[in-house]
Design brief:
Blueprint lengths: L6 H32 L5 H37 L3 H13 L7 H18 L6 H5 L4
Helix pairs in contact: 2-3, 2-4
Keywords: Membrane, Transmembrane, Transmembrane helix
Length: 136
């Protein structure tokens, strides 16, 4: 039976089978990536990256807003000669409005903002321990 098959026919048959195999692999595993490159379809990984980027931008925007609100509260406390316990209560309320920032990295940054603003305004001096207790 194989005596009737020439080498040319054999290599053509093997080539066709390899082509079919690689086309199957391509469409099974790489088709989504090909469409992703063309910009027509997004896969789950790119959606997750986009949502993570948006979440990071929202978190940074929230941190900036909290920093601004803290600076305003400390400036108001300096203008009105607010007592230390009143200022701490006000800062605690401001911080509680942003539960997404209750991570060590953001806590450290917010603590630095509070300490620098109180030093700059000079109305009330807060210790690091007092500032750390704001997160309760």
């Amino acid at each position: 039976m194989l005596e009737n098959v020439t080498w040319t026919q054999f290599f053509i048959g093997v080539g066709v089978m390899l082509l079919v195999y690689y086309l199957f692999v391509f469409f099974k595993y790489f088709n989504q990536h090909r469409l992703l490159v063309s910009g027509t379809v997004t896969n789950d990984a790119s959606k997750r990256e986009d949502s993570n980027d948006a979440l990071a931008e929202e978190t940074i925007a929230a941190a900036e807003e909290l920093s601004d609100r803290i600076a305003e509260s400390i400036a108001y406390a300096a203008d009105t000669k607010m007592r230390k316990d009143e200022l701490l209560q006000r800062l605690r309320a401001e911080i509680s409005d942003f539960p997404t920032l209750d991570t060590p990295a953001f806590r450290e940054g917010i603590k630095n903002v509070i300490l620098s603003e109180t030093d700059r305004n000079g109305s009330v001096t807060l210790s690091e321990r007092e500032v750390n207790e704001l997160w309760g």
